[in-house]
Amino acid sequence: MSAVERQLRVGLIGAGPWAHAVHAPGLTDHPGTLLTSVWARRPEAAKELADQHGVAVAASPEALLDEVDAVAFAVPPSVQAQYAVQAARAGKHLLLEKPLGGDVDQARRVAEAVGEAGVAALVMLTLHFAPETTDWLAELDRLGGWAGGSAKWLSGALLGGPYSGSSWRHEQGALADIGPHALDLLDSALGRITEVIGAHHGGSDLWHLLLAHETGATSTASLSLRLPMRPTVVEFTVYGEHGHRALGGKNTPAQECYTALLDDFVAMVHSGVREHACDAQRGLHLQLVLDQALRKIGQS
User: Fold this and answer.
1) In this structure, are residues 135 and 245 in contact, taking their beta carbons and an 8 Å threshold?
2) Terminus of the chain with fewer CB atoms < 10 Å: N or C?
């Protein structure tokens, strides 16, 4: 079998800035994947992206599913949940964005569909796939004994730039967009988050969360997409009996993180392995934590 025949045929649903910057070029360049078609709710956007990569425009999501082994999503959470369930039931492997859905019920339907179909699924938790994060988490696991930690992600992404026109990000804000990234790393570093002890949502879309972990550790997270930060502040810290360990900045470009995700995804598909630190069940867990935070401030 040739290298091309072993490639996974992947269809892309979505044609916004993130699809242009990360998904489409990543799928085109990776040796284990072949971008075959694009579908978007705006046909003109789908055509522009498809033409850039020399692939077809699918007439409908159903037509796209007929031609691929896997589907990558770059659409708002509620749209992803609808088509991800459909794709999983059709036996297609999934490259998912965070959060899984617009609410817990949608996320649960996605995770259940993935489990029932037995397909591979990964959630694009970008920082998790950066090599510096992998090294940081490995050291924390080796040492153990961490009592607490903090995450800080402060950005002006919704004040201007390529994602400032995103309706769902404006509606759901920092908690839904960057919250999964922050919660994922705190969860990975300190143990599974079991409770949102407290939450505050103030001006400038500024969230403060106090979290409990199954290990007995506690952590805090401060999140905003509407603060005039140049550059964006991204900091993670843990502390305990071995002192203080920090992970700072977004050092590895998103495109390289996506390549690392695709490495794992292709291996999962070909090996039959379905469990991963960033699988659909992980996505559901993070959505449940987001929901707890919303409940704390009376928004869920």
Assistant:
1) no
2) N
* CA–CA separation, 59 and 68 (whole Å): 14
- Residues of the chain by 3-state class (helix, strand, coil), percent to 5: 45, 25, 30
Fold type of domain 131-251: Dihydrodipicolinate Reductase; domain 2 (3.30.360)
Which segments of the chain belong to CATH 3.40.50.720?
3-125+255-279
Among 14, 8, 25, 27, smallest CA distance to 58 is for 14
pLDDT tens per residue across span 1-54? 344 448 999 999 999 999 999 999 999 999 999 999 999 999 999 999 999 999
Could you give the C-alpha distances from 51 to 7, 19, 42, 75, 81, in angstroms and in order? 21, 13, 14, 19, 27
Q: CA quadruple 201, 285, 187, 158: dihedral positive or negative?
A: negative
Pair of tokens at residue 1: 């079998």
3-125+255-279: in CATH 3.40.50.720: yes
